[in-house]
Amino acid sequence: MGENAPENRDDSDEDESVPTAVGGYTAQPAQVYIDGKGADWTALSARHEDAGDGDNLRLEQLWVAHTERRLFLRLAVASPINLEENNDLTLYLDADNDPTTGTSALGLGAEVEWTFGARRGELADGTDLEHEDVGLASLPTVREDTFEIAFSRSALSKQGLSVAPGDSLRIALASDGDRLPDDDGGLGYVLSDTDASVDAPSLARPSGADLRLMSYNVPNNFDRSRNRLFNTDRQQSYRRILQAVAPDVLALQEMYDNTADDVEQELEGPIDGVPKSWNWAKTGGELVLGSAYPIRDTTTIQGAQGQPSGGYLLDTRDALGDRLVVVVMHPKCCGGTSEDRSRQATVDGVVAFLRDLRRGEAPFTVPDETPIVVMGDMNFVGDPQQPRTLRTGQIINTDEFGDPAAPDWNGSPLLDTNPQQIGSPLHTTTFSIGSSFPPGRLDYAYVTDSVLDVVHEFLLSTPSLSADQRTEYGLDVDDTTVASDHLPVVIDISQ
Known about the structure:
The chain is α+β, with helices and mostly antiparallel strands and 495 residues long. 16% of the residues lie in helices and 27% in strands. The strands form four sheets. Strands 4, 5, 6, 7, 10, 11 and 12 form a seven-stranded antiparallel β-sheet that branches. Strands 15-16-14-13-24-23 form a six-stranded mixed β-sheet, covered by helices on one side. A six-stranded mixed β-sheet has the order 17-18-19-20-22-21. Helix 6 (337-359) packs parallel to helix 7. Residues 1-18 have low confidence and may be disordered.
């Protein structure tokens, strides 16, 4: 057991107001942010460090923390996995710390079992659970060896589970070939009272922000016959979202069968979400960009077959004092080897375009150090090489796309802005009630931070806003849920 594991901690001198210790362990209240990076866990103690004696999927470390609203886990495994697919890793939660109730798995009475790779769970009485039933969110969505996981305490309570302040519970995990801990009985934890609160961005544009950009996947039906933007039952939600965010540049994905003129007429007409003086252009087969500033040029950026990206040259000198290049992307979705290959080719194509832009060899020419923003629904699941390539310029298909090249003007990687939801510690950008996939991070915004400052960034999830915030900005609680299964990604930049 590692030196940070508190199994033998002596709680005898603790204040009587602290909940009774469970298995020598009390509580670790802390506001954790599910951002896929894990930096805020470094100040917290690991709940358990395993001996590393398992086979196949080896479980190594577990951290636990909580706030009034959520139970947080951080799990480290020996080798990278995709948490949401192709594994049998199962969490057992004894929500009442009573081995005589629930199932008898791993020597604890588990009220909840959740199998991550199957994306499903079960109560002890056999009731099936979906991710929304337990308020599950986890990052990253690509293969990694460390994951952050959050459960909603109110969602667990709705399942009849005991997760109130002062309640004690036990946690265990198992996979084919390993378990954590090795002994029966799980790991004890107490949900103490806590005043930990979310340090969240606001919707307001801060002083010093010259330009606001918003990326939004507005989904189609599966047959691409109709985009939600043109659905009259949803249009008021779009109007409220756009008027609340008030972007200067709007990058839309999944406009397959709609022209830029179609989008312009809808957003400046029935939806009335942007000024009528905006400029519009479509590239890449489905990517539409609207801008309060002139669009001087566009280009289709070749990548995987059927999945091109779009490049736009904006004259933003009145706002930034410089032109701006915006690249909008929507690589192929979903898991599998062929999908991974397709996404890699699309990403390689964008990196090649940025390399050529810096060399003066792209379809349009810009002065050195022209700011660049890359944004869109990236569908990064599975292979972690795709986000690595886009950030660092490490082209994989060099025979087709040429030599790797760092994408920023000074030879450095792009900045991954990684926005956070307003009112929530989550950095997840997608949700889909009825889908087996829990909320994840598929939407990204990158910038050349050698020549741009990101003043502010956020994800807009109207259910996460306070009632006062929704009133202030004229939003309804279900607006983002009605509009899309993706959240608006918003960045404020200056130069």
